[in-house]
Write a structure and sequence with these properties.
This protein has about 250 residues and is an alpha/beta fold. It has one domain (about 30-55, about 75-250): Rossmann fold, CATH 3.40.50. It has helices spanning about 45-55, 75-85, 100-105, 120-130, 145-160, 175-195, 205-210, 245-250, and strands spanning about 5-15, 20-30, 35-40, 60-65, 70, 85-90, 165-170, 195-200, 215-220, 220-230, 230-235. The strands form two sheets. The protein has a seven-stranded mixed beta sheet with strand order 6-7-8-3-9-10-11, sandwiched between helices. The chain is globular, with a radius of gyration of 19 Å.
């Protein structure tokens, strides 16, 4: 069973009168519990792919399955409900609400869940703040926290819905080297402890080094797939149209 399955997905945008093809015939599947990096330069399509997996955007063509359920034709309200129950998000700019405390930020996505009682919300907030090591900072607002602490709050918030998938868009970009390493190690520990799927959009070599699967995107197409076997990568170059083959084969 795949936690994410993508079949022949295309994504087009209109810039003025010009059509821009952001993704071209993407087919992938990810198993539960994977720690995966989607890598590529700026403008390659990696963030577009992450947004499609997160049901923030919808494909122009093709199908996307989350936990083997086709989400391609769902309404915005249905997609919002799916995100609230299944997908946690971690952003490079943290996206915390400045007027709320750390605990209130973690609780915020649960307020939309009628199936989660007030007592259950309280338990989850306390539990996940403890997991990320911020119990003593529960009452602090974001401007009273360091960058690393804010990202830990964001991780706790993503986990509070008990998601099948956590999507992280450049989660280390605004952190110094040491703090970035600590955050990556924390996410890896959570991945192993809870078997939570983590999917990163990144160009950070530290993230790629900790991933167990790699997808490289160039010009809207998959150019490389990688699977880590112990400390070595098994890389497979993807065949691309003839006009692009020299670039795809470059070292």
């Amino acid at each position: 069973m795949s936690v994410v399955r993508i079949e022949h997905v295309f994504k087009d945008y209109l810039l003025g009168d010009q059509k821009v093809q952001a993704l071209k015939d993407i087919t992938l599947s990810f198993e539960p519990g994977v720690f995966l990096a989607i890598a590529g330069p700026s403008g390659s399509g990696k963030t577009t792919l992450l947004n499609l997996i997160g049901c923030i955007d919808t494909p122009t063509r093709g199908r996307i399955y989350i936990n083997e359920e086709d989400v391609s034709g769902r309404t915005p309200d249905q997609l919002a409900d799916l995100r609230a129950r299944t997908i946690g998000f971690i952003f490079q700019t943290f996206n915390l609400l400045p007027v709320l405390s750390a605990a209130e930020n973690v609780e915020y996505p649960l307020l939309q869940r009628k199936d989660v009682s007030r007592e259950e919300r309280r338990k989850r907030v306390a539990y996940f703040l403890d997991i990320v090591g911020l119990t003593r900072y529960a009452g602090h607002r974001p401007n009273q926290l360091s960058g690393g602490q804010r990202q830990r709050v964001a991780i706790a918030r993503a986990l509070a819905i008990r998601p099948a998938i956590v999507l992280a868009d450049e989660p280390t970009a605004n952190l110094d080297h040491k703090t970035g390493e600590e955050i990556l190690n924390l996410m890896k520990q959570i991945n192993r402890a809870f078997n939570t799927t983590f999917i990163f959009s990144t160009h950070d070599k530290r993230v790629i080094a900790k991933a167990d699967r790699l997808v490289r995107v160039d010009d809207g197409e998959i150019s490389v797939l990688g699977v880590r076997a112990e400390d070595k990568w098994s890389l497979a170059r993807q065949r691309r149209p003839a006009r692009s083959e020299p670039a795809a084969g470059a070292a």
